[in-house]
Every structure is written in structure tokens, then in C-alpha cells.
Amino acid sequence: MWSDAPPQGVDLEAWRIASERHSQEQTAYEGKTEGARKVYATAEPHRGSWDRTVSAYLFTKSVSAGVGLVLAPLLLMGAPVSSQSLFPAALLALVFLALTNLLLVYKLERRERFIYVLIRPQWRSWLVRGAYIMMGYGALQSIAFLIAWTRGRPPSILMVLILLFALGTAVYSAFLFNQAKGRDLWQSPVLPLHLISHAIIAGAAALGLAAFMASSLSPLLPTMSRVLAGGLAVSLLALGAEFFSRHQTADAEAAAKMITSGKFRVRFWLWVFFGCHLVPIVLLAAGAFLPAAILALVGIALFEDIFVEAGQALPLA
Fold it and tell me: Where are the domains of the chain?
């Protein structure tokens, strides 16, 4: 049970919704149990322990994985992508992958023990699995980088592997979040779709923006515009599935309401939904790729920050 008064800092509307759902669940449960005792919630010391470092890690990972997720299928379908285009693309993926790893290690309480993740892996942990997936992706992108540097064209098998490891890099965080069992919003079955769509958006936007600085990427700009629009459409579908359907638990429902009608509502509706999804689609239709790409990147960064924060906003007990 929850106490009548919410802990300091908890959204009142979210608390009310969650309290009502918990009361309904308790009423149904009491008929099946005896000797139950009331437990009052307190604001546990670890609430909000995942800060914007985690949001930044999700963003940089989306960019790195997105480059492979967007470019590999084009090469496999025989698109006229030159080796001069592959060189800056692989470099872009490797730079953002390096940033992702730095943020991941920085967030660990005992950073010097990160080596144990590699030499003494606990394979049931998605932190370990994710580390090895990203290492594999980095190795494959490094090979592609070297091949492009010598003006060669990567073989199809390498592109297939890059596509698979890019997908794994993009989506494994959904399973990592799922292991935080006390955070019900993070158990969402829609989270993998969010992360995949974010990678597509980030990859297309980053490659398109890079085309303004690297002329070898300029031929990709029309294709990146279409891919970006498609990624934004998929992301809108994921947002609809996440926030316009009923969640399985009281805490997940309360956290979702906190995003759509609570403390995060302005950031979500004005920025994430309207300014960074609908507006970029209109801009792309008008041929204005540059502002559309920037807004799209801002949108996924904002949403990932909101999702991480809202998932921890309610007390665990």
C-alpha cells in the first residue's frame, strides 16, 4: 500500500492514479490472503539514480547504431554508395560508439572494475551482453573503415553482420532496462520499437548532416530524407502505442500519465511530439532537411531523457 501523502518531488496526479490502481489491486488481493499488514512508502535513497548520463548514452548509441542500421541495407540492395561515402560514415559510427562506451564506463560506480565485465562476464546480465555486442559492432565498423580507407567496397557478408550488430546495439538497452524490475515503465514492450526508430532517425539525420560537411556523402541526402521521414513515422506509432494504451501495472500507468499530463507534459507535447516529430515531417516534405534533422535529433534526446527520468519518479515501495 501507499501512504495518503506522496513523497516530496513526486507528481501529484501520477501519485493519485497509482494510488487508485494500487487500492484496486489490494482489494482484489486481500480476498486471497490473510494476515496482510500495511506498508507505507518512503522516498527511497536510490530514486533517480540514473541521471542524464544514461540519457546521453542512449543518444550517442542511437547515432552510432543508426549509421549501420541505415547504411548497411542500402549497400546490400545495391545502392550506388561510393567508398568515399563509406569512409566518413564508418568514422561517424566509431566516434559515437567511443562516446557511448565512455559514458557507460563513467556511469559505473567502480569504473576501474569495468575490465571484469569483459574477463569475468556474468552472461545473464544485459550490461555484459550489450558490452560484447557493441565490441562486435565496433570491430565490424573498424574493418569497414579500413576497407573504405583503401578505396575498396565492403563485402556483402560484412554488411549483413554490421546490420545485425547495429540492430543489437540499438535494441539491447531495452532488455537492460527490463532487468530493473522495480521500474514498471521500463518494462514496456514498446521500448524496443522506440529504440529502433530512434536509431533510424539518428542515423539518417547524422549522415544527412555529415553530408553538408563531407561532399562524398552528398549523393545520400535524398535517401536520408526519406529514411528520416520513415523513422519519424515509426516513432510516432511507438509513441501512440506507449501512451494511448493501458499499461499493465499501476506504477507504469502513473509514470506514463506523468509524461502526458503531469510534470513532463510540456516537454512531451510541445517539443517531442509536435516540435520534433510533426514539424520535421512537414519540413522534410518542403525539402528543408537541415532544420528537420536537427529537430529530430533534439526530439529523441528529449524523449530518452524524459523516459529515463519518469521511469524513476515513483518510489519503489
Answer: 52-311
Q: Could you report the per-residue pLDDT of 182-201, keeping only the tens digit for each?
A: 899 999 999 999 999 999 99
Q: What's the CATH architecture for 52-311?
A: Up-down Bundle (1.20)
Which tens digits make up the pLDDT trace of 257-299?
Answer: 999 999 999 999 999 999 999 999 999 999 999 999 999 999 9
DSSP state of 216: G
Residue type, position 70, single letter: V
Would you tell me how many other CB atoms lie within 10 Å of the CB of residue 158?
A: 17
Is the separation of the CB atoms in 223 and 229 below 8 Å? Answer: no
Distances 293 to 69, 226, 287 between C-alpha atoms, Å: 17, 12, 11
Three-state DSSP at 71 gives helix
Say which residue the cell 509524461 belongs to: 259
For 179, which DSSP code? T
97, 134 contact by CB (below 8 A): yes
State whether residue 125 is helix, strand or coil.
coil
